[in-house]
Design goal:
Layout (H helix, E strand, L loop, with lengths): L8 E9 L2 H15 L6 E5 L5 H9 L8 E6 L1 H4 L3 H12 L5 E8 L2 H4 L3 H8 L2 E5 L8 H11 L6 H11 L3 H15 L7 H7 L4 H13 L3 H14 L2 H23 L4 H7 L4 H11 L4 H19 L5 H13 L2
Parallel strand pairs: 1-4, 1-5, 2-3, 3-4
Helix pairs in contact: 7-8, 7-9, 8-10, 11-12, 11-13, 12-17, 13-14, 13-15, 13-16, 16-17
Length: 326
């Protein structure tokens, strides 16, 4: 009947949200439950998989097992028209019970209510699991729970400090927790001092320091910090942090230009208080015109990296040299 919502279809599971780490962890849990040795698992990207590959992954009989797992990421990128979506759901409806088909989609909270796949999955009786990033004020609790899940404990002050350092990045937080638990050998709770001394979340602090050096005209120090970051951090992760930092600076500069206080900046910028405070202070030494010029340069480098005109490492070096001249 039109408009009727069916009971959940246990053959298909829909994982969505903007917490990529939580979705990846859930998918690993499902694989461990269905196919521990990986012999009956296919992880597919909708943007590149062929119809034959998808059909084989979903409809093949499991090899020496009761079930197989097929995971399809980003179906919205492939099924963009009403006709394609109808065909896709007709295909889903014929999926065998011997396959657990998992759909994965990156969806922001503001997109959720109107997203076609969220609405269509509900009407089709497909079970959905939602994974959204914790908000900034929820991260301390998330870190406490994640530490317990990893078999350890953390003092609340230490969790709050770590939350300030990682923001809402759950994957990075989980990695830092694992390193800190190794540091204390699971023998005692992680303390604030442990976080300050042993946590390797130094990239954000180094990026703050690099911006300080640039604002002070200290090219040598800025380049030294950049070289250290390139040696110690994943370049693409660091690139995301650099972009995020200058976005924060622009937001902070907007507050300053509107004669807003630090407290008002904390209320209007949805980031960790530590990050907002640092950005507010740094933005006070840079004009909006300068920040917008820097952000434009970041976009140029990003485009150059994506088109293969420049490596990310070279782009970062160019950025420091270019900004040092301003």
């Amino acid at each position: 009947m039109c408009g009727e919502t069916k009971m959940p279809d246990e053959r298909i599971l829909f994982l969505y949200g903007n917490d990529e780490f939580a979705i990846a962890r859930r998918l690993n849990e499902l694989q461990a439950a269905v196919d521990k040795d990986g012999m009956n698992t296919a992880r597919l990207e909708a943007r590149t998989v062929s119809e034959d590959e998808l059909n084989t992954a979903v409809n093949s009989a499991p090899f020496l097992a009761a079930r197989r797992l097929a995971a399809l990421a980003n179906p919205s990128a492939r099924y963009a028209t009403p006709e394609a979506r109808e065909k896709f759901f007709a295909f889903l409806g014929k999926a065998p019970t011997t396959t657990l088909l998992v759909l994965q989609e990156a969806i922001e909270p503001k997109e959720e209510e109107k997203h076609w796949l969220v609405k269509r999955a509900g009407k089709a009786g497909i079970k959905a699991e939602r994974f959204m990033l914790p908000r900034a004020w929820e991260m301390t609790g998330w870190i406490v729970r994640e530490t317990e899940a990893q078999g350890g404990q953390i003092e609340e002050s230490a969790a709050a400090r770590l939350a300030e350092m990682v923001g809402e990045h759950t994957r990075q937080a989980a990695q830092e927790i694992a390193k800190l638990l190794t540091y204390v050998n699971w023998a005692r709770p992680i303390t604030l001092q442990d976080v300050e001394q042993a946590s390797v979340v130094t990239a954000q602090a180094s990026i703050f320091a690099m911006v300080d050096a640039l604002a002070n005209g200290d090219t040598r120090q800025a380049q030294a910090l950049m070289h250290r970051l390139l040696e110690e951090e994943d370049p693409f992760q660091m690139w995301g942090m650099v972009i995020r930092q200058f976005r924060l600076l622009i937001l902070a500069r907007e507050v300053i230009d509107g004669r807003g206080t630090l407290q008002e900046a904390r209320q209007s910028i949805h980031e960790a208080p530590y990050s907002v405070e640092k950005a507010y202070k740094q933005a006070g030494r840079l004009t909006m015109a300068a920040l917008e010029g820097i952000y434009h340069k970041l976009l140029e480098i990003d485009e150059g990296v994506k088109t293969g005109q420049v490596t990310l490492e070279m782009g970062l070096e160019m950025l420091v040299v270019d900004l040092a001249r301003k």
